[in-house]
Amino acid sequence: KSDISGNSIFPKIIKKDREKLPSYYTKDEIKKVLTLVDITSKVCKRDYAVLLLAITYGLRNCDIINLTFDNLDWKHNKINIMQRKTKEKLELYLTESVKFSLIDYIKNARPDYESNHIFLKFKYNYEYTENSSLYKSLKKYIDISDIELRNRKKGLHSLRHSCATNL
Fold first, then answer.
1. What are phi and psi for residue 152, nearest 5 degrees?
2. Rounded-to-10 torsion of CA 99, 42, 128, 36
3. What whole-number distance in Å separates Cα of residue 31 and Cα of residue 18?
4. pLDDT value at position 116?
5. Contact between residue 84 and residue 63 where contact means Cβ atoms under 8 Å apart
6. Is it the case that residue 1 has pLDDT exceeding 60?
7. Contacts of 29 (CB under 8 A, 6+ apart)
């Protein structure tokens, strides 16, 4: 007699119950946030590039902070990184919007400071530390938008969840 339930073929899946699903934003909400970024300001040029990296590729905060010029392959339109959390290599094709926002930030807004890191702070020693967060990059735009939060988080990690959900 065969087991028609599939239990003999497939291993048992154990899942942990979560109290709630991760925070995410719809495509329309994300577009609204991006329209609030005033890309005439140097800080906002950085914020816009950071937001696009998180929205487009679902990159983690730590991978954006640690992005260096060595990770950018302009010739082949790629970003090549070793993900900090998983230690997995990741090769991403640069979209036109991400490419041009990075170029705009690097050429027109990035502080003139000797560092291989792409994203720099605009005060003090300029470099982000390992534990530093780009949390404010999204939070300030969420705060000025009229997006209903419904207990959603405002940090960049919610854009990672948004990227996955909207795919």
1. -80, 155
2. -80
3. 29
4. 94
5. yes
6. no
7. 145, 147
What pLDDT shows up at residue 22?
76
- Residue 117, CB half-sphere, CA atoms under 13 Å: how many? 18
pTM (2 decimals)? Answer: 0.82
Residue 43, token pair as written in the block: 């800080």
**What is the CB neighbour count within 10 angstroms for residue 59?**
24
- Other CB atoms within 10 A of residue 35 CB: 10
Rounded distance, CA 108 to CA 131, Å? 27
| Token pair belonging to 86 | 């998983």
Q: How many CB atoms lie within 10 A of CB 27?
A: 11
User: Which residue(s) pair with 51 in the sheet?
Assistant: none
Tens-place pLDDT, residues 103-143: 999 999 999 989 999 999 887 777 776 666 677 778 888 88
Tell me the three state secondary structure of residue 118.
coil
Tens of pLDDT along 35-63? Answer: 999 999 999 999 999 999 999 999 998 99
Mark out the alpha helices in 71-128 (DSSP H runs). Answer: 96-108
Residue 103: count other Cβ atoms within 10 Å of its Cβ: 13
